[in-house]
Amino acid sequence: MRSAGPAAATLLVRHADALVTLAGHGAAPLTGAALGELAVIADGAVAAAGDRIVAVGPSDRVERAISLAEDARVFDARGRTVLPGFVDPHTHLVHAGTREREFGLRLAGAAYLDILRAGGGILGTVAATRAADEATLARLTRDRLDTALRHGTTTLEIKSGYGLDTATELKQLRAAKRAGRGHPVRTVATFMGAHAFPTEYRDDPGGYVDLVIEAMIPAVAEAGLAAFCDVFCEEGVFSVAQSRRILEAGRTAGLRPKLHADELASSGGAELAAALGAVSADHLVYASDAGLAAMAAAGVVAVLLPGTTFSLMGSRYAPARRMIDAGVPVALATDANPGSSPTESMQMILNLACLHLKLSPEEAIAAATLNAAHAVGLADEAGSLEVGKRADLLVMDAPSPAYLAYHYGTNLAERVIAGGRVAWQRAGLESEHR
Ligand code: IZC
Ligand code: ZN
């Protein structure tokens, strides 16, 4: 039991059948066997004062350690599993338009990159996003944040990359900021001008890389609109050399590097991520063993996106077990985007991670919380239930942690608590018990 002393608690969740805290792991992400060693407290409780956790542990000890504020909210979690709010460290949430037509083309056999080469895919979303005004983009993004929240996400990364011109990239990042302002989901932004080559630079890819480096990165950094810089490093998109130049320029401007790497072919993306000391490398379906070893040595988090492989009907999923064996810290994300992964649900990703990446439910939960927080540099605030962190927690309609990954296709979230407040709860639920 840990508690922070006498501050009166304004929220108490008690008597959880299973309380998963992911506490006590210090400043490093979980690797190797530790990823699956989930400590579970029976009859557990979490108390918060304001937006901070003040006590967590067995219910009797938590209740003895705290005093309750007059207007405290107290919830009974009998029969439930309580865990940290999900952290979704890779989304493309700010965009206009939908791509179900492309879904139809892919069902009929078209390849994702062929659709992009023909001016569809990402470029279709670019056209719709350029045409939308900032307020519309902010509203669309806010609606998607609401969906993510209802499914248990309390921290989420958002990338730009559907502008591919300076004005629209900035518009997207401002819309992301506007959507996140006052929203219970904490958001962090990534600049991804290097997501595709816009049609107007089709015959001048070098010119576009220069534009990203000379105009977009300085403008984004100057406006303080992003924490990270990301590149779609892939054969037929941005080469390793181009990606390196862009990410180094971003880093010089204060944007920490992230990469879309080795998603559709092995092209040296994992090696580049390690060489740059990137915060994360994402996808990695075709990453080489040497690249994975280098990532492990450099402490780069591998963000795995099984929803994308699933939606693209890929025959091969990321080699998660090889990564875990190699000591790479593994995290999970939705990749929420209108093309290759149209979902905001981290619960769906837990299921896919077990069935297709062969993670255990315990590993999947750690990868979707604590390690995901490391993938966006927010592990001091999110990803575990520990005194002093933000009180982001989920009361799930699940008798055990494993049930969360096993039961799929419905929303198991019963209450989503963000910053110490009930941000969402199931309709018809009694509001509280004391
Ligand atoms: O819009 O298709 N892979 N970028 C790289 C995506 C998927 C998002 C999209
Ligand atoms: Zn992505």
Can you give a write-up of this model?
The protein is α/β, with parallel strands linked by helices and 434 residues long. It is 36% helix and 23% strand. It contains 16 helices and 19 strands. An 8-stranded parallel sheet has the order 9-10-11-12-13-14-15-16. Strands 4-3-8-17-18-19 form a 6-stranded mixed sheet, with no helix packed on it. Strands 1-6-5-2-7 form a 5-stranded mixed sheet, covered by helices on one side. Helix 7 links the parallel strand 11 and strand 12. 58% of the residues are buried.
Task: Offer a concise description of the structure.
It contains 16 helices and 19 strands.
Into which percent range does the helicity of residues fall? 25-40%
Q: What can be said about the biggest beta sheet?
A: 8 strands, parallel
Round the Cα radius of gyration to an integer and report it: 21 Å
The strands making up the biggest β-sheet line up spatially as 9-10-11-12-13-14-15-16
Distance between the termini: 22 Å
Enumerate how many helices there are, as a single number.
Answer: 16
Shape: globular
Unreliably modeled segments: none
Number of DSSP strand runs: 19
Mean pLDDT: 96
Sheet-strand content, in percent, reads 15-25%
Q: What is the SS-derived class?
A: alpha/beta
Bound molecules: 2H-imidazol-4-ylacetic acid, zinc ion
Features:
434 residues; alpha/beta; 8-stranded parallel beta sheet; 16 helices; 23% strand; globular; binds 2H-imidazol-4-ylacetic acid; binds zinc ion
